[in-house]
Write a structure and sequence with these properties.
Number of helices of chain A: 7
Radius of gyration of chain A: 24 Å
CATH topology of the largest domain in chain A: Sulfite Oxidase, Chain A, domain 2
Oligomer: homodimer
Strand order of the largest sheet of chain A: 2-1-10-5-6
Distance between the termini of chain A: 30 Å
CATH architecture of the largest domain in chain A: Alpha-Beta Complex
CATH class of the largest domain in chain A: Alpha Beta
Helix content of chain A: 10-25%
Mean pLDDT of chain A: 92
Number of strands of chain A: 21
CATH superfamily of the largest domain in chain A: Oxidoreductase, molybdopterin-binding domain
Number of domains of chain A: 2
Shape of chain A: globular
């Protein structure tokens, strides 16, 4: 599980054997002359490129125009109460740039400004408070990285393989480095009264998207955040202030946060009763299913990222995460879960944050049923979809963390499939 | 040095005493009626906001239009062989978004595409090789976060305080999470011959910007990188492939990398003789000064981020980094280096990466001579500018890691100053 490419020697041996086109022998080159390789490489640029005042704030190069968030029109009735998906099939590492990080709005992304922004804390407190943005900037800050996953990520897949691509099956997730104020600090400033056991958080948007959070969680690792990946939150991510609720479902990460009320009981709002509860086979619903359990997905190869070369060395990569702590290991299967090989966890492994895994693999060119399976530091192992359905049925759209299967065909194309 | 706001209780006490406007007493509220705070907060939005198909790739909100990289026209003769600066005074956390990360080009930022891209490895190797981009994607990858600092960062300040703002005095730096191939893997693929002791790396741009790197470093932690902060490198950061040379001066992080040659000796190119060497008082020059020594700067308050409130609680924050490993501690002085207070290191502390520090401070409203001083895990302590000049004089524009002083005035305005 170390960070070094442990299979490198095997990789090199296999490359020499199978990686046609990768290796030109020194002997062949000597036969051709002094430096025949030069002919294979473009000349140096013959003109100046763009000056340093060309793009005060840059965007991706036009060749990467396909790496964008996408929505699925038929999925919801209106694009102002809808979702789009992070292009995880085309990303690497762990950070999600704000520009392509998925959005979920209940009444559209609203534009606020810092001057008029106010955050109210009221209810069962000693000192009801209203903070300006400038007030907030005077409180102690903390930096943490956390994934934000919509509870409905993978929701369409409860009923079988439906969406073609990791972007659509698993892309309701992003992972950013946040800077903000521990909510505990603001709650202590207001003075939570002994009867206060829950907070209720509302956004400035028309839906308000109110959610109840137990006081214990609010006092633990929740942030009132204003920076993501080093810069101000983008408008669509809650500018100027959003809640960060590490490890818990994205719907609770209230954007454009307007008010935090402290109450003796949960409010039982629409967003935690008719929505964001998990309908079971017997018609009853699980509620307070806040934590996002351990999950993983192979991002490449995947339907939008097919194998575009023949047999030989390749990189299998993906993401794993757990709302209960750190990822302890990720195993990869190429035979639909019959046998498993541990993947490398690459870079830092942080609690409640996306973890990148890699498996350096020699593909023999035959079909694969490709799967990843995450295990977190609590010992929890990501279940199969069959195991999930045996307990929870197929009525819910939330909390599907079942193992995903990609059918890799001999031509390298990849399809989203279910296996019995 | 823990990550928790250790001075929080003191902060809260002082807030109650000094933070006028922050606190409304419950008694006053009860006198006014049921929920008078509501009147202080904007209504919920009365209309839908932007739909999820509005911005497939988003940009910062227009209110943050000042948070951009900026160049200084008089600094160089031409904007195609020039520099711009990261707006570090307005950023938080540790990640630098690609869109506002500083650029340094020697002949402008060139546009390549993946289809035509080639990387050549030749010289003292058993198997000269040319890789396509698709070839590279088949090799084992690693993820690491590293700062990239121009050797000339702070160079204008050798002769005294000259540039008004942390963006301009210290903004030739960025910090990203990279994914790429350990260069060691590619060099072993080519088979470095025993006589090979140096690599020489060239870019595809017209300047080629060739730099020599000792083989030991090349085999250690150098990456051939294609992703930064999760997505493809931007054009101006070397799309599709750049070198990442953790802890070493930015000029060696060759962009649009075209060729890596292996040689017995350093090439002694323009970029490592007449440039990127450090002219000493006696007219001779230090060379091979690759490592960026430990350094820090207060990013807020700073000339572009003045204090905009009266006395009372405030956050002093900044960045620290070392090319020799992790930051061990950062101390902050408000009296020009007479007395020092340890700051909190916030978030993860990674080797050869930017580290964020915070000091929760109660400002009494008087003038401050604000400084930060970094100590790295080797025990190296960031020197004063006077100590640096005593040895190196003022002829060089490179490797100025002296302690920066901001004069904070009673009105909150901040000026770049030198102290005797």
């Amino acid at each position: 599980m170390a960070d070094e490419p442990t299979s490198r020697r095997a990789f090199l041996r296999q490359t020499a054997a199978a990686g046609a086109g990768l290796v030109a022998t020194a002997a062949a080159l000597r036969a051709e002359g002094a430096d025949p390789l030069i002919a294979q490489v473009q000349d140096y640029a013959s003109a100046f490129g763009a000056p340093v005042d060309a793009t005060p704030y840059g965007l991706p190069i036009r060749h990467e125009a396909h790496v964008v968030r996408r929505n699925v029109e038929w999925l919801t009735e209106s694009p102002v109460s809808s979702i789009n998906f992070t292009p995880i099939h085309a990303l690497e590492g762990t950070i999600t740039p704000q520009g392509c990080a998925f959005e979920r709005h209940h009444s559209g992304a609203i534009e606020l400004n810092k001057q008029d922004y106010r955050l109210m804390i009221n209810g069962l407190v000693d000192r009801p408070l209203v903070f300006t943005f400038a007030d907030l900037m005077r409180f102690p800050r903390r930096v943490l990285t956390s994934f934000c996953e919509c509870a409905a990520n993978g929701g369409m897949e409860w009923n079988g393989a439906q969406l073609e691509g990791a972007q659509f099956t698993h892309g309701m997730i992003h992972n950013m480095e946040y800077t903000g104020i521990p909510l505990r600090v603001l709650l202590e400033e207001a003075g939570v009264q002994p009867a206060g056991k829950w907070i209720y958080v509302e956004g400035h948007d028309a839906s308000s998207n109110g959610r109840s959070i137990p006081l214990d969680k609010a006092m633990d690792d929740v942030l009132v955040a204003f920076f993501a990946n080093g810069e101000a939150l983008r408008m669509e991510h809650g500018y100027p202030v959003r809640l960060v609720v590490p490890g818990w479902e994205g719907n609770m990460w209230v954007k454009w946060v307007r008010r935090i009320g402290i109450y003796a009981n949960a409010v039982e709002s629409r967003e935690e009763t008719s929505k964001y509860t998990d309908l079971m086979p017997d018609g009853r619903a699980r509620k307070w299913t806040w934590t996002m359990d351990a999950k993983s997905v192979v991002t490449s190869p995947s339907p939008q990222a097919p194998i575009q070369h023949g047999p030989g060395p390749m990189v299998i990569t993906g993401l794993a995460w757990s709302g209960n702590g750190k990822i302890a290991r990720v195993d990869v299967s190429t035979d639909g879960g019959v046998t498993w090989t541990p993947a490398r966890l690459s870079g830092d492994v942080k609690p409640k944050a996306l973890t990148r895994f890699h498996l350096d693999y020699i593909w023999d060119g035959s079909e694969m049923l490709l799967q990843a399976r995450a295990t977190d530091e609590t010992g929890y192992v990501q279940p199969t979809k069959a195991a999930l359905r045996a307990i929870r049925g197929v009525n819910s759209v939330y909390h599907n963390n079942g193992i995903q299967t990609w059918w890799v065909k001999v031509d390298g194309e990849v399809e989203n499939v279910e296996i019995a």
